[in-house]
């Protein structure tokens, strides 16, 4: 049984991916067939792990992360999560290496990034790694959308959702990847998220899921399937929709982008932390926008470590 102090709204349990990011920051187009100068760093990442770290940074006093990593990097990832204030519940996979994502970041303009993803051991997180006791003391359950892109993960999602609903624990999910989502299919996605209370798509993901070109229309339509929908729009802020209508439009916070890796994860983590302290969805989305702005000014997908916070260590 998991015990320990929780915040006013209970603990946050995140279930999702833990990977190693190799961030290559270059300027301008890649030079095909030859060298392109870049600044390269190896950093801890993964959408699920990033969300957990930003939730802890946002003030959630008890954040737990269930993930699967290879023996090659398990000690390092556990140490990094602890340093960010997260309680790691990592399954060490002896048959698969830790996932690796190569993040190509163009340092011009918006610091947009392109991912090359080998999810590794994260793809093997499944029902056998779940126990209902993981929900002891938990006020919210968050599922990384990357779970939906593997057979074990797709099997785990309904198990976790059913267990959470039996305890009255609300469930959120971030679709995670428009590219993988297109391959999964809209109808399949909507059936898999049955029972989820909060959906946190990006603008591209919301439009893909609805077939609508306008983010507001897409948010409104999705909120007929999921009770609360929050669409992340980057520099255009966020939309909060319920019962088929957009109820709040949250302005973005100005930032000087260095690397957009993990900005959506930062939003999600801060949003969930705020909900757990009793904030209304609009207030929580504003906290998410602040965290997203903070994230794009740093290299990598994590906030400053809790053991060495300072104004900018990115």
TrEMBL record:
<dbReference type="InterPro" id="IPR029056">
    <property type="entry name" value="Ribokinase-like"/>
</dbReference>
<comment type="similarity">
    <text>Belongs to the carbohydrate kinase PfkB family.</text>
</comment>
<keyword id="KW-0418">Kinase</keyword>
<keyword id="KW-0808">Transferase</keyword>
<dbReference type="GO" id="GO:0016301">
    <property type="term" value="F:kinase activity"/>
</dbReference>
<dbReference type="InterPro" id="IPR052700">
    <property type="entry name" value="Carb_kinase_PfkB-like"/>
</dbReference>
<protein>
    <submittedName>
        <fullName>Carbohydrate kinase family protein</fullName>
        <ecNumber>2.7.1.-</ecNumber>
    </submittedName>
</protein>
<dbReference type="InterPro" id="IPR011611">
    <property type="entry name" value="PfkB_dom"/>
</dbReference>
<feature type="region of interest" description="Disordered">
    <location>
        <begin position="294"/>
        <end position="314"/>
    </location>
</feature>
<dbReference type="InterPro" id="IPR002173">
    <property type="entry name" value="Carboh/pur_kinase_PfkB_CS"/>
</dbReference>
<feature type="domain" description="Carbohydrate kinase PfkB">
    <location>
        <begin position="12"/>
        <end position="304"/>
    </location>
</feature>
<feature type="compositionally biased region" description="Basic and acidic residues">
    <location>
        <begin position="295"/>
        <end position="314"/>
    </location>
</feature>
<dbReference type="Pfam" id="PF00294">
    <property type="entry name" value="PfkB"/>
</dbReference>
């Amino acid at each position: 049984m998991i015990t320990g102090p929780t915040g006013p709204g209970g603990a946050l349990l995140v279930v999702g991916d833990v990977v190693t990011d190799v961030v290559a920051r270059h300027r301008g187009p890649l030079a095909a067939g030859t060298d392109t100068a870049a600044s390269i760093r190896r950093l801890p990442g993964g959408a699920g792990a990033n969300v957990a770290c930003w939730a802890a940074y946002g003030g959630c006093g008890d954040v737990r992360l269930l993930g699967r990593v290879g023996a090659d990097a398990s000690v390092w990832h556990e140490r990094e999560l602890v340093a960010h204030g997260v309680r790691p519940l990592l399954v060490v996979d002896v048959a698969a290496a830790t996932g690796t994502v190569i993040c190509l970041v163009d340092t011009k303009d918006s610091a947009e990034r392109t991912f090359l993803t080998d999810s590794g051991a994260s793809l093997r997180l499944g029902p056998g790694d779940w126990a209902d006791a993981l929900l002891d003391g938990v006020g919210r359950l968050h599922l990384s959308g990357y779970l939906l892109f593997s057979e074990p993960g797709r099997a785990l999602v309904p198990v976790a959702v059913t267990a959470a609903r039996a305890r009255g624990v609300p469930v959120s999910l971030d679709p995670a990847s428009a590219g993988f989502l297109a391959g999964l299919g809209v109808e399949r996605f909507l059936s898999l998220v049955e029972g989820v209370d909060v959906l946190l798509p990006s603008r591209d993901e919301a439009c893909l899921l609805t077939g609508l070109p306008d983010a507001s229309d897409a948010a409104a339509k999705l909120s007929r399937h999921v009770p609360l929908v929050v669409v992340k729009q980057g520099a255009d802020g966020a939309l909060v929709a319920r019962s088929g209508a957009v109820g709040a439009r949250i302005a973005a916070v100005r930032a000087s982008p260095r690397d957009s890796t993990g900005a959506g994860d930062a939003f999600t983590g801060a949003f969930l932390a705020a909900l757990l302290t009793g904030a209304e969805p609009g207030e929580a989305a504003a906290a998410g926008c602040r965290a997203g702005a903070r994230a794009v000014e740093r290299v990598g997908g994590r906030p400053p470590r809790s053991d060495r916070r300072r104004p900018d260590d990115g």
